[in-house]
């Protein structure tokens, strides 16, 4: 029997809400703590638990058919991958931040400055649009520490509650984009699996309507 292959985050902020929404759709799966692959018990679906940042490539390659992923990750790494359902959870911003004592008046502050980030494409695109040229340092995590250790003048990262910025003595100065979890679809999905996707989308729409 053909199954649709869905990628969800292995651990982290999207993991629980992703499993929860599938459960609300009447699809029960294991949580991926022990296995990286699981089959749904009552729906033609196989679940792959993956690292967030790897998911766009799996979608591009058609190794998975769909994914629950942050829109911010798709914007950063998912060129050519579409989505049609916003899932209403994992809302966050991708923002620029600077040490709180900086007198910030405009984006011009960043001209010639060093910015640490895990979102190089997003920040480069944003700065280009504003006509600013800056030095981008790619870091994979704990980005907010960079100004404190003298690695950067500012950072670009996800802001959710704002607590990480606050704890590191930073302030948000530009919101580059707003994001939430979406259901992304591989450009290589087969016609047969598209039919399963349609069924899933129908259930998701019903769940989202009920949540309102
Ligand atoms: C994420 C993100 C921010 C923080 C934002 O980091 O990179 O640092 O959460 O959330 P907040 O505004 O609610 O504090 P995460 O904790 O996932 O760790 P990482 O950056 O080391 O991957
Ligand atoms: Mg972080």
TrEMBL record:
Activity regulation, per record: Feedback inhibited by histidine.
Requisite cofactors: Mg(2+)
Cellular compartments annotated: Cytoplasm
UniProt keyword rRNA-binding, yes or no: no
EC number of the protein: 2.4.2.17
Source organism, top-level taxon: Bacteria
Chief location: cytoplasm
GO BP terms in the entry: L-histidine biosynthetic process
Keyword Signal: no
Annotated metabolic or biological route of this protein: Amino-acid biosynthesis; L-histidine biosynthesis; L-histidine from 5-phospho-alpha-D-ribose 1-diphosphate: step 1/9
Catalytic activity reported: 1-(5-phospho-beta-D-ribosyl)-ATP + diphosphate = 5-phospho-alpha-D-ribose 1-diphosphate + ATP
GO MF annotation: an example: ATP phosphoribosyltransferase activity
Cellular component GO terms, alphabetical: cytoplasm
Domain ATP phosphoribosyltransferase catalytic, first and last residues per copy: 51-205
Keywords: Amino-acid biosynthesis, ATP-binding, Cytoplasm, Glycosyltransferase, Histidine biosynthesis, Magnesium, Metal-binding, Nucleotide-binding, Transferase
Protein's job: Catalyzes the condensation of ATP and 5-phosphoribose 1-diphosphate to form N'-(5'-phosphoribosyl)-ATP (PR-ATP). Has a crucial role in the pathway because the rate of histidine biosynthesis seems to be controlled primarily by regulation of HisG enzymatic activity.
Family to which the UniProt record says this protein belongs: Belongs to the ATP phosphoribosyltransferase family. Long subfamily.
This protein's name: ATP phosphoribosyltransferase
Annotated organism of origin: Maribacter vaceletii
């Amino acid at each position: 029997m053909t199954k649709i292959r869905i990628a969800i985050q292995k651990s982290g902020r999207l993991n629980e809400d992703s499993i929860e929404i599938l459960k609300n759709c009447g699809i029960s799966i294991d949580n991926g703590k022990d296995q990286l692959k699981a089959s749904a018990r009552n729906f033609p679906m196989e679940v792959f638990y993956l690292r967030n940042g790897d998911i766009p490539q799996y979608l591009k390659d058609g190794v998975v058919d769909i994914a629950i992923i942050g829109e911010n990750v798709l914007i950063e790494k998912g060129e050519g991958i579409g989505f049609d359902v916003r899932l209403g959870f994992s809302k966050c911003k991708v923002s620029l931040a600077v040490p709180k004592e900086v007198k910030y008046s405009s984006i011009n502050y960043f001209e010639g400055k060093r910015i640490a980030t895990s979102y190089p494409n997003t920040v480069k695109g944003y700065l280009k649009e504003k006509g600013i040229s800056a030095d981008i340092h790619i870091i994979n995590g704990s980005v907010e520490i960079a100004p404190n250790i003298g690695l950067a003048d500012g950072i670009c990262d996800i802001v959710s509650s704002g607590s990480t910025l606050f704890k590191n003595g930073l302030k948000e100065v530009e919101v580059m984009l707003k994001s939430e979890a979406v259901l992304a679809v591989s450009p290589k999905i087969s016609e047969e699996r598209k039919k399963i996707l349609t069924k899933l989308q129908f259930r998701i729409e019903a769940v989202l309507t009920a949540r309102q």
